[in-house]
């Protein structure tokens, strides 16, 4: 014996309200959608039929219900049983069960969302294909009744009335109804009216502001107003969007302030002119965080809750196409208004760099227009290359600061690769363009640009160097004397990444228990050459004078001070012992200076 499943409507309503829809607000969207679909169906057979979709809020002239009237196709008695009263059955699918293109609905569950706010749904309907006016009453507990209406409707169409569930009245009252009708249905292709108590009605629909207007300043103004109203900012620029395969048109609004790249944008998506969502991050590629988008699409699919886009190949290719249109806008800007591009780069530095990492055209724009910090000042790489055919870069901001003064004085140009994406971009520029030579410059490598001393000077300096080394040994730092420009720089602290690693290992070893200290010791060959170095500059008059001092105590003190100063000016992190040395040497210097002046 074949039996049919029974459906527990209470369970289904609970499922919808707590798991499918995010808010009871959606009931109005589903009502509007049914009215629009019924109107579309009627227009298909009667193109000249008069159209009306009108909402009467709860409380209007003491009305105990919310009502929505349409002059759509209506339903026959048989259709009421098979469509309205059967969960999951829809007139909007074809014989094979596919969603019919012209309709918004497809799942056959939308009307149930009314049970989120109502205990009873009344439908008075007369089919345009003939037959009497029928009255259907559906209850949240799963019962329904159907009878002939006492009074025939004058014209075909449907009136759906909701009897509010206690506590849910506010969703059906005037203010909510207007707000929700404009929110979901503001761009619908048919006029949607909300009735006033005095018998008049207000229109809540208007055409999409980006459609059918000449590209002039009035349109820009209008779209700017739209952006301000829905996204909260006046756009830096507006980009028209079109993806024919998705039946998509719309606009991207470029943010006039920098956006957090980790925060993906909230875009507005209409499907067949009904709002699907005003907060989807899924429409643009991740890198496009400098734009907010409003689009209407006829071919993209909704999820069953109609609150998100269904992730399929079409959505994927649409996302790529939209990304391409944003990128083309950038390229166009570089040709038509380079100063605007410059402004844009200033605002959206990170977004553009992220884009350039996987897009060669943008990479070219970045190379040509985007300023980088260099030892010659901020400038685009294209300009930097005019005087420095090899682009040398530091990997960190600290390294850049360490070597900037020395490199500049040597005539070596260095680009600061320490900022977000900068090193990756520089490397990618080198990889994708065989004509551009890019190479990293480690701080240790700077030593090759420092001149060694003449033999006789080195001999003279030997004792001084020994005292300096002894002073710095406790700090796990080496000392060297070299000659370099600028003469105003007495000492340079150089630590390459390897040295930093060894130093950390050593620190851990000092504080670890004996067993671990032993293990760490075995890892660390304690190679003296990978210790950081304080390079004293023989070209500096100060260093020459210090080298001439005879009091080893004073030499130690001065070396410690130079060490502290070099650490600070290179923005190196200070360990506890560095701070202690810095404090002690500073105070003792003051003490000596004060004592010296007392003696006078
Ligand atoms: N105002 C109306 N006029 C005529 N028919 C209607 C109306 N409202 C509902 N119907 C009929 O009832 C059926 C079920 O409606 P329901 O809103 O539950 O689902 P749907 O619109 O088909 O799909 P979805 O779940 O995607 O909204 C519709 O397919 C339609 O045939």
Automatic annotation (TrEMBL):
Work out whether the entry's keyword set contains Nucleotide-binding: yes
- Pfam families attached here? HATPase_c_3, HSP90
Span of domain Histidine kinase/HSP90-like ATPase: 19-168
Q: Which Gene3D superfamilies match?
A: 3.30.230.80, Histidine kinase-like ATPase, C-terminal domain
The answer to whether UniProt assigns keyword Methyltransferase to this entry is no
Query: Could you tell me the keywords of this UniProt record?
Result: ATP-binding, Chaperone, Nucleotide-binding
Q: Which family does it belong to?
A: Belongs to the heat shock protein 90 family.
Record's protein name: HSP90 family protein
Please tell me the species this chain comes from: Fodinicola feengrottensis
Which lineage ranks, top first, belong to the organism behind this chain? Bacteria, Bacillati, Actinomycetota, Actinomycetes, Mycobacteriales
């Amino acid at each position: 014996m074949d039996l049919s499943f029974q459906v527990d409507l209470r369970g289904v309503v609970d499922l919808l309200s707590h798991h499918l829809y995010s808010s009871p607000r959606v009931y109005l969207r589903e009502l509007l959608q049914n009215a629009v679909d019924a109107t579309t169906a009627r227009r298909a057979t009667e193109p000249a039929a008069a159209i009306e979709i009108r909402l009467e809020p709860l409380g209007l002239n003491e009305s105990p219900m919310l009502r929505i009237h349409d002059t759509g196709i209506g339903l026959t008695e048989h259709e009421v049983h098979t469509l309205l009263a059967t969960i999951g059955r829809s007139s909007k699918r074809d014989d094979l069960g596919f969603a019919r293109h012209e309709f918004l609905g497809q799942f056959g569950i939308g009307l149930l969302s009314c049970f989120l706010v109502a205990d009873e749904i009344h439908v008075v309907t007369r089919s345009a294909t003939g037959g009497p006016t029928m009255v259907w009453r559906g209850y949240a507990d799963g019962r329904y009744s159907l009878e002939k209406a006492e009074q025939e409707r004058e014209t075909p169409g449907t009136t759906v009335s909701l009897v509010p569930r206690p506590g849910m009245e506010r969703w059906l009252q005037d203010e909510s109804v207007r707000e929700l009708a404009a929110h979901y249905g503001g761009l619908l292709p048919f006029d949607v009216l909300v009735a006033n108590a005095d018998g008049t009605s207000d229109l809540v629909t208007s055409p999409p502001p980006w459609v059918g207007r000449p590209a002039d300043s009035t349109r820009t103004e209008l779209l700017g107003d739209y952006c301000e109203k829905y996204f909260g900012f006046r756009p830096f620029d507006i980009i028209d969007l079109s993806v024919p395969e998705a039946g998509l048109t719309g606009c991207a609004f470029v943010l006039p302030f920098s956006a957090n790249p980790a925060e993906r944008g909230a875009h507005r998506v209409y499907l067949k002119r009904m709002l699907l969502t005003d907060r989807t991050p899924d429409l643009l590629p991740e890198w496009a965080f400098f734009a907010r988008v409003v689009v209407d699409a006829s071919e993209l699919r909704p999820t069953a809750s109609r609150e998100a886009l269904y992730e399929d190949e079409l959505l994927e290719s649409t996302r790529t196409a939209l990304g391409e249109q944003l990128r083309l806008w950038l390229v166009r800007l570089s040709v038509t208004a380079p100063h605007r591009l410059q402004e844009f780069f200033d605002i959206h530095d990170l977004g553009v760099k992220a884009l350039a990492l996987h897009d060669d055209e943008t990479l070219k724009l970045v190379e040509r227009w985007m300023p980088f910090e260099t030892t010659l000042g901020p400038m685009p790489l294209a300009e930097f290359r005019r005087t420095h055919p090899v682009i040398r870069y530091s990997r960190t901001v600290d390294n850049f600061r360490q070597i900037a003064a020395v490199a500049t004085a040597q005539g070596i140009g260095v680009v600061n690769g320490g900022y977000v994406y900068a090193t990756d971009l520089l490397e990618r520029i080198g990889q994708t363009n065989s004509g551009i030579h890019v190479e990293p410059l480690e701080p240790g490598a700077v030593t090759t640009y420092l001149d060694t001393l003449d033999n006789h000077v080195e001999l003279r300096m030997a004792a001084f160097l020994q005292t300096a080394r002894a002073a710095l040994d406790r700090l796990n730092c080496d000392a060297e004397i070299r000659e370099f420009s600028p003469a105003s720089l007495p000492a340079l602290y150089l630590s390459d990444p390897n040295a930093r690693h060894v130093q950390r290992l050593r620190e851990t070893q000092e504080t670890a228990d004996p067993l671990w200290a032993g293990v760490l010791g075995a890892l660390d060959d304690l190679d003296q050459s990978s210790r950081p170095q304080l390079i004293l500059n023989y070209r500096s008059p100060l260093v020459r004078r210090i080298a001439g001092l005879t009091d080893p105590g004073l030499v130690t003190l001065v070396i410690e001070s130079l060490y502290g100063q070099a650490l600070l000016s290179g923005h190196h992190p200070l360990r506890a012992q560095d701070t202690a040395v810095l404090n002690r040497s500073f105070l003792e210097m003051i003490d000596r200076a004060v004592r010296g002046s007392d003696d006078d």
